[in-house]
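tmp note - PspA/IM30 family protein
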Amino acid sequence: MTGRQTILGRTLRLARADVDALVDRAEDPQQTLDRLVRDYSDHIREAERAAATALGNLRLREADHRRAAGAADEWGAKARAAGRRADELPAGVAAALAGTFDDLARTALERQTTAESAATAAEPLIAAQTEVVERLKQNLDAMREKLAALDSRRDAARPGVA
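out:
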């Protein structure tokens, strides 16, 4: 998470940077604008890679959550089926096999509980990861807007451009 926090912090700082003040104080505004455009482009590529990684990790967590929830449903159905089967046994056979079906139902319920716990534990992680991905996307959009403004300003400041 530290790597994501670092890139998130950097994208936020770059999106909020006062580029105009930096260019106005520069000895050679054209050279400064060229360097800023290059640096912003590099930072955007790095942030895009981080956002793609974070999004990929989010999708993996979501898939794990879906699998755990599906497993919980499946184990619940198996527990119900074992209980029904025990109830459907003929009277003479019921006494001999009732314990076996009870054990099967109990085991299925334990596995259902384990799968439900795994699904529940994943939910806050998914929510946090979703928030990080959304903030990265917002910061990337702000950085792209700032890069477009820098490009426009750089093009307007070029000699021979009216």
